[in-house]
Amino acid sequence: MAGLAMIMFIALFAFGNQFVGWDDPAGHVQLALFTTFLFGIICGYRVRT
Predict the structure, then answer these.
(1) Which of 14, 41, 44, 49 has its CA 20 to 30 A from that of 35?
(2) Residue 49 confidence (pLDDT) above 80
(3) What is the distance between the alpha carbons of residues 20 and 3, in angstroms, rounded to a whole number?
C-alpha cells in the first residue's frame, strides 16, 4: 500500500497540472502536495510507535 501511495504521489506531483489542469507557475500546489505527503509520513510513523 505504501508503494502505491508513493507512485500516486510522484505522478500527481510531477504530472498533476496535466491530469487536473491547475495553473500554478509559482509552485504553491506542488509545495502543498509535498508538505501534505511529508506530514502523512510523520503521522504514520508516530501512530506505529
Answers:
(1) 49
(2) no
(3) 22
Q: Is-above-0.85 flag for pTM?
A: no
Domain locations along the chain: 1-47
The DSSP secondary-structure symbol of 5 reads H
- In angstroms, the CA 12 to CA 15 distance is 5
Residue with cell 500546489: 29
Ramachandran region, residue 27 (left: φ > 0; alpha: ψ -120 to 50; beta: rest): left
Kindly report each contact of residues 7-10 with a partner whose C-beta sits within 8 Å and lies 24 or more positions away, as own/partner: 9/33, 9/37
Neighbour tally for 9: CB within 10 Å: 16
